[in-house]
Amino acid sequence: MKIEIITLFPAYFNSVISQSIIGRGLNKQLFEIKIIDFRDFALDKHKTADDAPFGGGGGMVIKMEPLYRCLESLGYGRTNKAGEKIILTSAAGKLFNQQKAVEFSLADRVTIICGHYLGVDERVLSLFEIEEISIGDYVMTGGEAAAGVMLDAVIRLIPGVLGNFESALADSHTEKILGAPVYTRPEEYMGYRVPEPLLQGNHKEIRKFRRFESLRKTHENRPDLLNNIPLDKEEIMYIEQLKKKEKNERIDL
């Protein structure tokens, strides 16, 4: 996979792409990353990349010309080739999730434009096939952090990046529910023991325990996700028990 990141602040990514799984994956040449400063494509000697918005108001807008020239230099036109994706980090975009991470990880080439200020001149979206993506309902200073989040989520899905690919497949949100709690040695610490089902070696019971713990965690932290996953009769009864327990605890208070 080839990944390009277009940014006003290329130095931001110095540590992002050299650490942890991203750095290891680069060293193994499992993918390539190119950081591009689109000020280099500005038309004036001051490398101006932004200007005031038409219609007035505060803030600045990323200019058309440098972004257009940058994407054109990378070989992009009005329609992307098969396996190519251009992503713009944008508060107005579709929400990034695990399904999007999987989709992007299967591409041959992903180009991420880091949005800034009020956004980019809207006309660039008419000239190129760009997908606007948001990582959440909050405001950030710029798109570099969002690009870093997407980069991490996508790269870990590339075969060979993780030592054990099963860990990527078992991640929270891969099955649209949160992951089960995990434990490691020692078996007991300050009176707290690892749950017994994880110590017995019965794989069927371990899978069941982890499934129910995932459901519990999802019910507690993201109950909205439970509306979108199939549950069998035993699982539905378990969720109802959790609801009754919560109700009784509220009454006791």
Give the SSE layout:
Layout: E1 2-7, H1 13-16, H2 20-27, E2 32-37, E3 50-51, E4 61-62, H3 64-73, E5 84-95, H4 98-105, E6 109-113, H5 124-127, E7 130-134, H6 144-155, H7 165-169, E8 188-189, E9 192-193, H8 203-221, H9 233-252
Parallel strand pairs: 1-2, 1-6, 5-6, 5-7
Antiparallel strand pairs: 3-4, 8-9
Please summarize what this structure is.
This protein has 253 residues and is an alpha/beta fold.
Helix content: 25-40%
CATH fold type of the largest domain: Alpha/beta knot
- According to CATH, what is the class of the largest domain? Alpha Beta
* Quaternary structure type: single chain
Tally of individual domains = 2
> For the largest beta sheet, what order do the strands appear in spatially?
2-1-6-5-7
Annotated CATH homologous superfamily of the largest domain: SPOUT methyltransferase, trefoil knot domain
Q: What is the CATH architecture term of the largest domain?
A: 3-Layer(aba) Sandwich
Cα shape:
elongated
Give the count of helical stretches: 9
For the sheet with most strands, the description reads: 5 strands, parallel
Structural class: alpha/beta
Low-confidence stretches: none
**How many beta strands in the DSSP annotation?**
9
Average residue-wise pLDDT: 93
Distance between the termini: 55 Å
β-sheet strand percentage: 15-25%
Helix-strand pattern:
EHHEEEHEHEHEHHEEHH
Query: How many whole angstroms does the radius of gyration measure?
Result: 23 Å
